[in-house]
Design brief:
five-stranded mixed sheet, D-Maltodextrin-Binding Protein, domain 2, single chain
Length: 299
């Protein structure tokens, strides 16, 4: 049981409240916000590639202090609008210079005047199945989701709407082309004893749920599964859903996600330079190593 502590602040705050007790409240807040020369807010699905990008950018541009947050984009949109974010009893008021996330999140900030323009700079390669090492339940396809002995993990449909929709739509699209019973799948997703729903941050919760044996399988972005199997090789395996020629690795019915970037306000001293860096060959190589790649055309 996790105790839900009340706020214990000396003054009323107008910051957007966010916390995630199950995965450590601070795992997705990186660096020292008080000293940061560049602040980036980003969705967390490609956090491993963003980390390396910022390391390379800071080193090549003489920037000693960077701060970046990698929680679900809707939460970060609210944080931008409120001017601060509250983690338990800690309030961070560092405003981002660059915002990264799905198109809808960036468009919300355009509509409120926080961002002028944005463009897609990377995209996913689709989704795979994350299972425990050795795949003890022998889960090989979406069809196995219907087995009574297979428990699923899913992002929270209310708190991580974008990721939930990407995964759910992928499952249903793959089921349709493979002849899997869609009505039965929908029924399973509505069964609380068959699906372990996350709270608010699936890129930490999905592997934790499988490691803790709350779930047997999770449909996740390939680049997330690649990260988990690299850093926890004795804990996880991934299962591909389709043929595996280079660059079209996964089932063609998978939903592809695009990651957009835009400057917040004037971007500060380093915002525009970082935006230019995101479009460069070095970042192409970094993201490719982590299982993501450039859109055919920047839009």
């Amino acid at each position: 049981m996790r105790l839900n502590w009340p706020a214990e602040l000396a003054q009323k705050q107008h910051a957007y409240p966010w916390y995630h007790p199950a995965s450590n409240i601070c795992l997705d807040f990186h660096g020292d916000p008080g000293k940061a020369q560049l602040v980036v807010y980003s969705d967390g699905n490609h956090h491993m590639a963003l980390m390396e990008t910022l390391q390379q950018f800071g080193g090549s541009h003489g920037i000693e202090n960077l701060f970046y947050a990698t929680i679900p984009p809707n939460n970060l949109v609210h944080a931008v609008k409120s001017g601060a974010i509250q983690l338990g009893n800690l309030v961070i008021s560092s405003k981002p210079h660059v915002f990264i996330g799905p198109e809808k999140a960036l468009q919300q900030l355009v509509d409120t005047g926080h961002v002028a323009t944005h463009k897609a700079y990377m995209k996913s390669q689709g989704n795979v199945l994350l299972v425990r090492r050795g795949n003890p339940k022998n889960i090989e396809s979406i069809n196995d989701f219907l087995r009574k002995d297979v428990r699923l993990f899913s992002p929270n449909p209310a708190k991580e709407t974008v990721s939930y929709q990407v995964y759910f739509e992928s499952v249903m699209a793959i089921a349709k082309v493979s002849g899997t019973d869609i009505a039965a799948l929908e029924k399973k997703y509505a069964s609380p004893d068959q699906v372990h729903y996350g709270e608010c941050i699936h890129h930490r919760e999905a592997p934790q749920a499988i490691a803790d044996n709350y779930a047997d399988v999770a449909l996740v972005y390939y680049h997330l599964a690649l990260r988990y199997t690299r850093i926890f090789p004795s804990v996880f395996d991934m299962v591909f859903l389709g043929e595996k020629p280079a660059k079209t690795l996964y089932h063609p019915a998978n939903v592809i996600s695009y990651y957009h970037a835009g400057m917040v306000g004037d971007g500060g001293v380093h915002g525009q330079t970082f935006m230019d860096y995101l479009a460069g060959e070095q970042v192409t190589k970094i993201y490719d190593q982590h299982g993501l790649y450039r859109p055919e055309k920047f839009v």
